[in-house]
Amino acid sequence: MRRTLFLWLAVVFSISVHAQTSQTITGTVTDPDHAAVPAASVRLLSPNGAQVAHTLTDQQGQFSFQQPCNACLVEIQLTGFLTQRVAASREDLLIELHVAPVEEHVIVTANRSETPAVFVGSSTTVISKDEIAARQALVVSELLQSTPGVAIIRSGGYGASTSLFTRGGDSDYTKVLLDGIPLNEPGGAFNFGSLSTTNIDHIEIVRGPQSALFGSDAMTGVVQLFSTRGESETVRPQTSFNLEGGNLNTINAGASVSGQAGHFDYNVFWSRFSTDNHGVNAGFADSTAGTNLRWNLGKTKLRWILRDDLSRGGTPGQTAFQPAITDAYAHRGDGYSGISIENQTNRFWNQRLTYTFDRSRQRSRDLGLDPPYVPSFDGSTAPFEFSDFADDFVSDTRRHQLDYQSNIALGSGGSDWGQHLFTLAFSAEKEIGAIGDRLSGPASTTHNSLHEVGGVFQYQAIIGRLSLTNGFRVEDHSLFGRTVNPRSSIAYLLRQGGGDFGATKLKFNFGLGFKEPSLVDLFSPNPEFLGNPRLRPERNRSFDFGVEQRIWEDHAKVEINWFDNRFRDLVEFEITDFQKFEGTFFNVNAAKANGAEIILETTPRSGLKLTATYTYLNTLITQSSTPADPIFGVGNGLLRRPRHSGSLGAIWNWRKLTTSSNLVYVGRRVDSDFEALEPPLTSDPSYTRWDLAGSYQFTKHFTYVGVITNVLDRSYMEALGYPALPIAFRTGGRFTF
Question: What is the CATH number of domain 225-736?
Fold first, then answer.
C-alpha cells in the first residue's frame, strides 16, 4: 500500500514538474506611454546567457515561447530603446521599455499601422508631446518650421495665410490629417494660419509621396496630428487651466478635463487666443474646442473625435508696399469629426471601420473702398495707380469619407521567413463645394462635387535585419478615371547594437504621387477663369535614399537623406482671349526638385536634448506656359522654396525647470512683389528667427510659463510685402488639479 502511494505521488510530482517546465512564457512590451511596441526583438536566454529561442512582438506588443526553460531570462531589444532583461515567469509578463538617450518612436503614418521607426524606410520626423509642451507654440506651423525638408511661409502675423512646402512641392502637395481625418480642401490646399496646437499630443511628418496609402494630395508628404487622449494616471479626472498675456494685446487661455472611468476614457478641451499682431487691421482671434472619447469593450474599441475651430482676422494686405486695407477681414470656421470601430478579431487579425466628416467655411470680405495708391518699396515703384475693389468671397467645402482597413499578421519573426503584415484598405469619399464671390452673383459661383473610390494593398516583411514594404493604391475618380500609384520602401540594419559606433540603418524609397485639380480649376463658370473638366491630375515621381548612424552609446544620431522629385501635368492658368480677359486652366507645366537633408540629434547629458537640421533644395521649372517670364519661366527656381534652410534646437529639463530654444534660418528664395514694381522684386532675402520658452513648476498644481518670439527683433518678410511680427512676449501660468 505504501509502495503504491509512493509511486502515485512520484507520478503526480513528475507531471507537475513537466507542466511547470513546459509552461508557455508570454508577455507584452510597451513604451513609457503604455502603448504597445511591435516588432521588438525578444530572446529567451538560459541562465548562462545562451539563446534558447527568439521571436518578435506582434502588433499588440505580445510575444510567447513554448520551450521549457528553468531560471531563464527574457531579453527585449529595439533600436532607440534601452535593452531590458527580466526573469521568465509563468505569469504573463508586462515589460515597459525605456527610451534610449536619443529615442525612437513607434510611427503610424508611414505604413498606416504601428511600426518602430527603425523598421521604417521613409524619412520621418516626430514632434513629441514633450517637445510641444516645452516650445509652447500657439499654432502648428511654428512647430513645423524646424522640420527638415519643410518650408513654412506665413503672410504676416498670427492668423495670416500660411503655406507648407515639402521637398520642393507646391503648398497643396502635402496631405494633412487629424487622427486620420483629412483636412485638405478639394484640390489639396490647406491654410495652417489658424490651426492651433491645443490638445495636440504629437505630430508625425512623413516626407516623400504617400498616395499609395492616402490617395490624392499626398504628392510630397503627409502631416498627421494626433489628439490628446484621456489617461488613467489617477482615479479622479484631471482638470487644467492656463492663462497667459503679453504685448501686442495678446491673450491665450484654455481649459481641459480628461481621465478614465473603467472602460471609458475622455478628453474635453477649449482654448481662446487673440492678438492685435502688428499694424492697422491686423488683429486675430481664434477659438478651438472639441472632445476625444473612447469606449473599450475588450476586443472592440469605439472612438469619437470632434474638433471645431472658429477664427476671425483682419487682412491689411501687402503693407510693406501699400497703405493697410482698413476694413477687410477673413472669417473661418472648420469642423472635423470621426467615428471609428476597431476590432482585434484574434491575435493575427485587426480590423477598423471609420467614418469621417469635415467642413471648412471661409469668408473673405472687403466692402469698403480705400483711396487709390501707388505701390512702392526700397526704390521700386509701380508705373500706375492701384485702386481698391469690393469683394465678398466665400468658400464652403465638405467631405464625407468611409474607410475600412484590415491588417493580417503572419509569422513570429523567430523563424527564417520572418514576420509579415498584409494590409487591405478600402475607402469611398465625396467632396462638395461652393466657391465664389457673392458680389458677382450666383452665376459665377463654382458649385459641384467629386467622388472617389480607392483600394490599398500593402505587404510588410521583417526578415532578420531587412524590413521591406511594397504596396499600391488603385483609385477610381468621378472625372479623370482610374489611377494606380505604387510605393516601395526598404530599410536595412547594416549594424546593430550600441557602443561608440552603434546601429547603422540604410534606407531607400520609390513612389508615385498624384493630386486632383481644385473645384475652381475643374468647374468654375466664370469666363474670366473658366474651369476645365478635362484636366488630368498633377503627378510626381520620386525616389530617395539615406543612412542613419547612431554613435556615442546612443547619445547621438546622424541622418542624411537625398531625394529627387519630378513633377508633371501641373495645372496652369492661360488667357485664351486677351480682348475679353478670358482664360482657363491646362496641364502644361513641369518642374523638378532635388536635394539633401542632414539631421543631428544628441543628448550630451541627462535632461538636455540638442538638434540641428540643414536642408539643401534645388528646384527648376522645366516646362512653362510662359517660358520667358522672369519668375515663372523655364530655368527659374520654384516660388518661395529656399535653397538653404536649417534649424538649431535645444530643450533642457533640470529639476522643476524646462527651457527651450529654437533658431530657424531660411535662405534667399524666389518670390514676386505681384504689384508690377519697377525694377521688380524677384527674390526674398534670408532671415533668422530665434524663439525662447521656459516653464517652472512652483507647486504640484501651478506652473509658471513664459515665451519670447523673434528674440533678436529682426525685420523680415516670409512672403514679399508682408512684414513678420517684431519681438513679442507672453507670460502666465498653468493650473492642474
Answer: 2.40.170.20
